[in-house]
Design brief:
The chain is α+β, with helices and mostly antiparallel strands. It has a single domain (about 1-120), classed as 60s Ribosomal Protein L30, Chain: A, CATH 3.30.1330. It contains two helices and four strands, in the order βαβαββ.
Length: about 120
């Protein structure tokens, strides 16, 4: 099992802007987040999970703004693939994602994080 905490990622809508020639590239904000998140993960020295897995992501609320929680999922799982902690995010058999505190009584965290748990599937 892998358990890590990483900074809350930028919205998936802002990960790859398009240049004047129509080519997509990683945004500076996305690059910065990937570097910070990678250091957070590497500090814990997690091991690689091979094969199918389940993932649970629990996110801190940054502020009162409405956010699509599923926007955090893509960046987080792609980072785990890039760091070679999972083989491919297509191997996820079950994914759960939620807020740490409910909307009606939120607790805001300035330096919001996403708490990720990855468990291998047996057999």
């Amino acid at each position: 099992m892998i358990q890590v905490k990483i900074p809350f990622p930028p919205s998936v809508n802002n990960l790859f802007p398009t240049d004047s020639r129509g080519r997509r590239f990683p945004s500076p904000k996305y690059k910065k987040w990937k570097d910070e998140a990678a250091w957070s993960i590497k500090a814990g020295k997690p091991y690689k999970i091979t094969g199918h897995f389940t993932a649970t992501l629990v996110a801190d609320r940054k502020d009162r703004r409405k956010r699509d929680l599923d926007n955090a999922l893509k960046a987080c799982l792609d980072l785990l693939v890039a760091l070679d902690l999972i083989e491919d995010d297509s191997l996820a058999e079950h994914v759960e994602i939620g807020w740490k505190t409910p909307f009606h009584s939120p607790e805001y965290v300035k330096d919001a994080q996403v708490h990720i748990t990855i468990k291998p599937l047996d057999g």
